[in-house]
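Quick start: what a row looks like.
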Amino acid sequence: RNVNSLTFRKGITLDEVRTFVLIFAETASQIKNRGGVKGILDSKGVTHIVVDQFKYGIITDDGQAEKDDMTSDEKALDNLVFTEIVNKIKQGGDLGDVNAEGVAAAFQSLMSGSYKKDAKSRANLAQMILSLDPSLADQALFASGGLKDAMSWSTARTTINQLLDDIGRGKPENRVHALENLAKMADMAISKNKDTTINEMVTRLNERIWFKERDIDVNAQIFDVLVDFFKALIVAYKHTAAMEIIRQIEKLDRTLDNLPDDKQDNYTRALKELCATSFVQASAEATVEVLMRELESDVMSIADQAMKILETLRTEQVVEQLLEGFKNDSRTTRNRCFQTLMAIGPKALEVCVWKVKNLDDPSMFPRRDTVGTLDDSAFYVARNAIDLIAKLGGASEMDVLRKAASDKDARVRREVLSAMPKVDATEAGHMAANFLQDPSKDVVEVAINTLGMLQDQSAAGKLIDLFYADPDIRAAVINALGKIGGKEAEELMLPATRFRFGGHLVQIYKTNEELRLLAIRNLGLLGREPARNALKKFVGRWTNPIIRPLFFPLG
């Protein structure tokens, strides 16, 4: 561009300057078709700027022939001229009065004109926009197609540095606008794998949430940017930077919880609400799915990092997905899900209780037959939810476990009974005694083992009755009585040391050598004198070659 003679008259307005500046962004044909520079200024009512001669590439107002001899270097120079003009305007007026849409349209015209095929010029054009305020940058740099993509990384880094400074100064609306633009630049930093810049952005944004920003609307925008940044980092598998974001929010959340009453006000309560909302928003389905896939990793460091992030989020969405993780075929993955849920604690307990309370809901726990047997995948969820309730909730969730103990699926009843000793030994004893008459032998065996583990002397009589009634569970009864001990248990096992005399019990042991060996082994655990004497005689007879054939005809 060449302005050979330019006069500014007293009384010039910013609108007139804007009209004049925008002429620099028009193509040759546009200026010519509109009657040249003088014609454009006259049509816009510009009376305080007089241009005697104006040359722009193939544009001339002095009647010379038109020719397009503009090179990329000349275009770069043009951009610098444009930048200097804008800077001069900024020194003497408020650029906020300039129509942002108009500037964006001017940039778009440049992009679709002679700049279209020139990547260098487009990059220079993007650099030029750095001189504009955030509102114009939003319209031109981020809204106009191709400008941001054409930007070199050095230019982008300069833009990011400027925006990082802008989020801490100026009016609240300007800070919000800078944050919006910073969020857009974050995508570029991630896509180009600029980890140093990413870490700088995370650090600067994290600093702002620690009581440095007093405007609630600006704070809300900061949290929004951080959450979007977090989700983008997770999807890009940049978990270290993502973890730093969510850890700082969690740290702030704990700090706000521990503030004394005299330090709490509307501002701190608003921050607390923003923290809670951020956790929920950060737990978006796509984000959690990526982290759940990481739990399947063979690399422990990757899985461990994913577990820590899920633990820090600790939202209902996360707990739901971790419970779904119990359907995974990998035992390692299921164990990682369980460990993470245990670390999450109260929120995991809350969701598990809700799940178990709704065992009858077919939409949550589908069943595969009229008997009420749960689908295997549904059972895996129910089983681990019951175990988590027992470990995290304890006696406070007794009613939930009692209700689950009456489920139609024998496997669920078995799991409740197995978990009950972790909650309350007395309640476990009562429940196990009741389950001795359960129609499922698996449940009965668990009940027997539970009574043995609890060493419930009052249950010895019931167990002995079961020994006679059901041959299939005799081994379980013997093991349980070996732990319970007492005279009744001893009398049941003593006949196992004999092959002759002793009535019905001797016959039972003679027909089942494995049961005999099991009874002898448990008899030794009792420690009572009659049991010791019987075992001594048994050993003596077995080792005597003369007496042995008389007492051990099968041996």
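That is the whole record. The two ends are 116 Å apart (CA to CA). Residues 485-555 form one domain.
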